[in-house]
Automatic annotation (TrEMBL):
Record-given protein name: Thiol:disulfide interchange protein
All copies of domain Thioredoxin-like fold, residue ranges: 108-227
GO terms for cellular component: periplasmic space
Segment forming the signal sequence: 1-20
């Protein structure tokens, strides 16, 4: 009984000590760089080094919060990429919970690789992302149309009234060609807005990979390929 009590007490002490160090890092960060927003600060395997999330990226800092390191942390023994684990943990959603039936589906090549994107037809960065996605092969793209701009709402809804929504979306996002259909039909725009909010997507474009890893912004094709490779997707 005494041994069990000692183990529990020691565990509580170690846990409290870890949180105390994290509190120190947060306090030093607020003091040294009040405008630098780093979230999810936690301990790492490397003594005295802490990880955090900044604009969706994993960064590292020491206890006095005077130095910041960006880049992968590897465990030498087995070459395991610890940063990759943190990236997935901090920026992940459940792919299986995506209502893919509400997305506009586009298949290129075999379509064996999958991503979902949130996109606004009048968002310049969304247009840039579409150009980058055209450089990728063997890809299935599920587009959740998210009209954040007022002028995007009407054409976004009309995409779903076309006989070929995928082509209508491509014409709209790539060339600004408005859907020709004048009829009204059911559309998932409101559901898409609620979905985006529930997943922390408050801007466009957003990319979600099939393992749930989420990134924001118009990533170049090379970086998207690198993510596929990094996670063996």
């Amino acid at each position: 009984m005494l041994k069990k009590t000692l183990i529990i007490s020691l565990s509580t002490f170690i846990s409290s000590f870890a949180f105390a160090n994290i509190d120190t890092v947060q306090a030093n960060l607020a003091k040294n760089s009040p405008n630098l927003k780093i979230e999810n600060i936690q301990t790492t395997e490397m003594k005295g080094i802490y990880s955090g999330s900044m604009q969706g990226q994993v960064v590292y800092l020491n206890e006095d919060a005077k130095h910041l390191i960006a880049g992968p942390m590897l465990r030498i023994q087995d070459q395991h990429n610890l940063t990759r684990d943190l990236m997935l943990k901090q920026n992940s959603i459940d792919w299986k919970k995506l209502p893919l039936q509400d997305a506009v589906k586009s298949v290129r090549g075999t379509g064996k690789r999958q991503i979902a994107i949130f996109s606004d037809p009048n968002c310049p960065y969304c247009k840039k992302l579409e150009l980058e996605l055209k450089k990728l092969n063997d890809l299935t793209i599920y587009t959740f149309i998210l009209p954040l701009k007022p002028q995007s709402v009407a054409p976004s809804k009309q995409v779903y009234c076309e006989s070929n929504p995928a082509q209508a979306w491509e014409d709209l996002i790539a060339q600004g060609i408005q859907p020709k259909s004048k009829k009204t039909c059911a559309n998932p725009i409101e559901q898409n807005k609620k979905l985006a909010q529930s997943m922390g997507v408050n801007g466009t474009p957003a990319i979600i990979f099939s393992n749930g890893f989420k990134v924001m912004g118009a990533y170049p094709a090379e970086q998207i390929e690198q993510i596929f490779k990094e996670f063996n997707l």
